[in-house]
Automatic annotation (TrEMBL), chain A:
A biological process from GO: glutathione metabolic process
Residue ranges of domain GST C-terminal in the record: 88-208
Record key words, sorted: Transferase
MF GO annotations: glutathione transferase activity
Reactions catalysed, as given in the entry: RX + glutathione = an S-substituted glutathione + a halide anion + H(+)
Protein name in UniProt: glutathione transferase
Organism: Carya illinoinensis (Pecan)
InterPro entries given in the database record: Glutathione-S-Trfase_C-like (IPR010987), Glutathione_S-Trfase (IPR040079), Glutathione_S-Trfase_N (IPR004045), GST_C (IPR004046), GST_C_Tau (IPR045074), Omega/Tau-like (IPR045073)
GST N-terminal domain: residues covered: 3-82
Organism placement in taxonomy: Eukaryota, Viridiplantae, Streptophyta, Embryophyta, Tracheophyta
One Gene Ontology term, aspect cellular component: cytoplasm
Pfam families, per database record: GST_C (PF00043), GST_N (PF02798)
CDD domains: GST_C_Tau, GST_N_Tau
Domain of life (superkingdom): Eukaryota
From TrEMBL, chain B:
EC category: transferase
CC terms in the record's Gene Ontology section: cytoplasm
Family: Belongs to the GST superfamily.
An MF annotation (GO) of this entry: glutathione transferase activity
Protein name: glutathione transferase
Organism: Carya illinoinensis
All residue ranges annotated as the GST C-terminal domain in the record: 88-211
Pfam family, one: GST_N
Superkingdom of source: Eukaryota
Length: 219, 218
């Protein structure tokens, strides 16, 4: 019998982790397939010909691409438990806005922290801290970005917490000291089984990033 | 409670036109405020402190920014009206993917191809052509990306349906030719003819004038 849900992914991808968390939240059984990003499978290229990227969710043979789109799809299809988006349209719009902000800003600037040197690196450090400040402002005193419950914007950002050690090291800052609200929020999210079981160890991610940095910068 | 809907936009922006199109499709009356991007109003900065951009929709004093987020909001708050997104989850995912593809990939490539210079522009022409081909193949011989009626992807693709033609005319760069893109070409003709869409496009000659001025100011 064909497996109903397949996920094409890469262990360190914060985008893939979002999908894994959503699947765990909903209690969905699926087949996980690890991709070698330097030697992408025919299946991946066939299922995501436009971007050729992971994650790709394959549901009954049909592909869904782009992590936040996949998470919304999962939320809409398996709508019997653990809603990830709130029911109020305005709150939904806010959740989508912040997930979009995280997508547009955190990855690209974060990447520059470990992949650049000199002036570009200095600029990235400043920019990244501004982004964290903005996110902390939005979080405020709430337990989660979604308010009282873990939701869409939390899923979008929490996966980056597995990259915090790497980002702190290359960004030369301390999340706990300089952005305590985000630090506390990440710890709170880790108390959820779906998050704790999904996120890889920060040290492992750091070593992976070190390897990428070496290849890019030769050091 | 009286519903108050305000749209902050600029007349040349495909993004703010998307929001107006969606409101018109739903039959929602709104107040429009034209922004001067060189001198943004305190209200705009108050309603969109994060990006400081248009469009912003303000519904009963509550602001929403980012055009695609706004389109979904409009669709969800007016579920009985004209459907912007399909009902089926897989089709919704496809519509979201298409809209994001236009914003993340097509728009930057088209802009660079038409307005960039030298090698960067040549590369962008190649890239934009490849991206438009994805759209061409996705559309097939359907009337609209939404099927028989316009939908979210059509609204998002207003850049391709209208603005691209004006860029091509002003810069001389040719991207969407009929022989390469018969489906997209037919679609763009249908698109600009659509009653609601055409009410929400800037007058072509004025758009071209504006772009010409911008080009010579560089």
């Amino acid at each position: 019998m064909a497996v109903e849900v397949v996920l094409l992914d890469f262990w360190a991808s914060m985008f893939g982790m979002r999908v894994r968390i959503a699947l765990a939240e909903k209690g969905i059984k699926y087949e996980y397939r690890e991709e070698d990003l330097r030697n992408k499978s025919d299946l991946l290229l066939q299922m995501n010909p436009v971007h050729k990227k992971i994650p790709v969710l394959i549901h009954n043979g049909k592909p869904i691409c782009e992590s936040l789109i996949i998470v919304q799809y999962i939320d809409e299809v398996w709508n019997d438990k653990s809603p990830l988006l709130p029911s109020d349209p305005y709150k939904r719009a806010q959740a989508r806005f912040w997930a979009d902000f995280i997508d547009k800003k955190v990855y690209d600037t974060g990447r520059k922290l470990w992949s650049t040197k000199g002036e570009e690196h200095e600029a990235a450090k400043k920019e990244f801290l501004e982004i964290l400040k903005t996110l902390e402002g939005e979080l405020g005193e709430k337990p989660y970005f979604g308010g009282e419950t873990f939701g869409f914007a939390d899923v979008a950002f929490v996966t980056f917490s597995s990259w915090f050690y790497a980002l702190e090291t290359f960004g030369e800052f301390s999340m706990e000291a300089e952005h305590p609200k985000i630090f506390a929020w990440a710890k709170r999210c880790m108390q959820k089984e779906s998050v704790a079981k999904t996120l890889p160890d920060q040290q492992k991610v750091y070593e992976f990033v070190l390897g990428m940095r070496k290849r890019l910068l030769g050091e | 409670m009286v519903e108050e809907v305000v749209v902050f936009g600029v007349w040349v922006s495909p993004y703010s036109r998307r929001v107006e199109t969606a409101l018109r499709l739903k039959g929602v009356p709104y107040k429009y405020i034209e922004e001067d991007l060189g001198n943004k109003s305190p209200l705009l900065l108050k309603y969109n402190p994060i990006h400081e951009k248009v469009p912003v929709l303000v519904h009963n004093g509550n602001p929403i920014a980012e055009s695609l987020v706004i389109l979904e909001y409009i669709d969800e708050t007016c579920p009985q009206g004209f459907p912007i997104l399909p009902k089926d989850p897989y089709e919704r995912a496809t519509a979201r993917f298409g809209s994001k593809f236009i914003d993340d990939k097509c728009m930057p490539a088209i802009t660079q191809a038409c307005w960039g210079e030298g090698e960067a522009s040549d590369k962008a022409v190649e890239e934009a052509t490849e991206l438009l081909m994805f759209m061409e193949n996705e559309l097939k011989e359907n009337r609209f990306f939404g099927g028989e009626r316009i939908g979210m992807v059509d609204i998002a693709a207003n850049i391709v349906g209208f603005w691209l033609g004006t860029f091509e005319q002003v810069t001389g760069v040719e991207l969407m030719t009929r022989d390469k893109f018969p489906n997209l070409t037919n679609w763009s003709i249908e698109f600009v003819r659509n009653n609601v869409i055409k009410e929400n496009l800037p007058p072509r000659e004025e758009m071209i004038s504006y772009l010409r001025k911008k080009r010579s100011a560089r």
